[in-house]
Amino acid sequence: MHHVQTHPGVRGRGIGAALMTEAREVARQEMGLEQLHLAARAGVGLEDFYGRFGWKEIGRWPGALRLAPGDDRDEILMVLQPL
Questions:
Q1: What is the pLDDT of residues 10-40, one digit of tens each?
Q2: What is the number of other CB atoms lying within 10 angstroms of the CB of residue 28?
Q3: What is the reported pTM?
Q4: Of 14, 47, 49, 60, which cross-links 74 as Cys (Cβ 3.0–4.6 Å)?
Protein backbone atom coordinates (compact mmCIF):
# COMPACT_ATOMS: atom_id res chain seq x y z
CA MET A 1 0.00 0.00 0.00
CA HIS A 2 1.36 3.42 -0.91
CA HIS A 3 0.54 6.91 0.34
CA VAL A 4 -2.70 6.20 2.16
CA GLN A 5 -3.72 8.96 4.51
CA THR A 6 -6.62 11.11 5.53
CA HIS A 7 -6.68 14.88 5.69
CA PRO A 8 -5.92 16.09 9.24
CA GLY A 9 -9.20 18.01 9.29
CA VAL A 10 -11.31 14.85 8.97
CA ARG A 11 -9.37 12.51 11.24
CA GLY A 12 -11.29 10.82 14.01
CA ARG A 13 -14.36 10.19 11.84
CA GLY A 14 -13.59 6.57 10.96
CA ILE A 15 -12.46 7.27 7.41
CA GLY A 16 -9.02 5.70 7.91
CA ALA A 17 -10.59 2.66 9.55
CA ALA A 18 -12.97 2.29 6.61
CA LEU A 19 -10.07 2.56 4.16
CA MET A 20 -8.09 -0.14 5.96
CA THR A 21 -11.09 -2.47 6.18
CA GLU A 22 -11.93 -2.02 2.50
CA ALA A 23 -8.30 -2.46 1.39
CA ARG A 24 -8.14 -5.77 3.23
CA GLU A 25 -11.37 -6.98 1.69
CA VAL A 26 -10.38 -5.99 -1.85
CA ALA A 27 -6.95 -7.60 -1.46
CA ARG A 28 -8.45 -10.85 -0.20
CA GLN A 29 -11.71 -11.18 -2.11
CA GLU A 30 -11.01 -9.47 -5.43
CA MET A 31 -7.27 -9.83 -5.83
CA GLY A 32 -6.67 -13.15 -4.07
CA LEU A 33 -3.68 -11.82 -2.15
CA GLU A 34 -2.35 -13.51 0.96
CA GLN A 35 -0.65 -10.50 2.58
CA LEU A 36 -0.20 -6.75 2.34
CA HIS A 37 2.85 -4.61 3.16
CA LEU A 38 3.09 -0.96 4.07
CA ALA A 39 5.59 1.54 5.35
CA ALA A 40 4.51 4.12 7.92
CA ARG A 41 6.19 7.15 9.44
CA ALA A 42 7.31 6.71 13.04
CA GLY A 43 6.64 9.25 15.74
CA VAL A 44 2.95 9.92 15.15
CA GLY A 45 1.29 6.75 16.52
CA LEU A 46 0.64 5.08 13.18
CA GLU A 47 1.96 1.74 14.39
CA ASP A 48 -0.80 1.73 17.03
CA PHE A 49 -3.45 2.70 14.47
CA TYR A 50 -2.45 -0.06 12.05
CA GLY A 51 -1.98 -2.53 14.90
CA ARG A 52 -5.69 -2.25 15.70
CA PHE A 53 -6.36 -3.75 12.25
CA GLY A 54 -3.94 -6.66 12.63
CA TRP A 55 -0.82 -5.13 11.06
CA LYS A 56 2.50 -6.23 12.62
CA GLU A 57 5.80 -4.37 12.59
CA ILE A 58 8.47 -6.40 10.80
CA GLY A 59 11.29 -3.88 10.72
CA ARG A 60 12.44 -0.27 10.54
CA TRP A 61 14.63 1.90 8.40
CA PRO A 62 16.18 4.24 10.97
CA GLY A 63 16.13 7.88 9.94
CA ALA A 64 14.76 7.05 6.47
CA LEU A 65 12.34 9.98 6.37
CA ARG A 66 13.51 13.57 6.62
CA LEU A 67 10.52 15.79 7.39
CA ALA A 68 12.64 18.89 8.00
CA PRO A 69 16.26 19.61 8.84
CA GLY A 70 16.90 17.93 12.17
CA ASP A 71 13.60 15.97 12.05
CA ASP A 72 14.47 12.53 10.72
CA ARG A 73 12.03 9.71 11.40
CA ASP A 74 12.17 5.95 11.12
CA GLU A 75 10.10 4.28 8.45
CA ILE A 76 8.17 1.41 10.01
CA LEU A 77 7.74 -1.66 7.80
CA MET A 78 4.51 -3.56 8.47
CA VAL A 79 2.73 -6.64 7.18
CA LEU A 80 -0.87 -7.83 7.33
CA GLN A 81 -1.20 -11.57 7.05
CA PRO A 82 -3.24 -13.62 6.76
CA LEU A 83 -5.82 -11.47 5.09
A1: 999 999 999 999 999 999 999 999 999 999 9
A2: 16
A3: 0.86
A4: 60
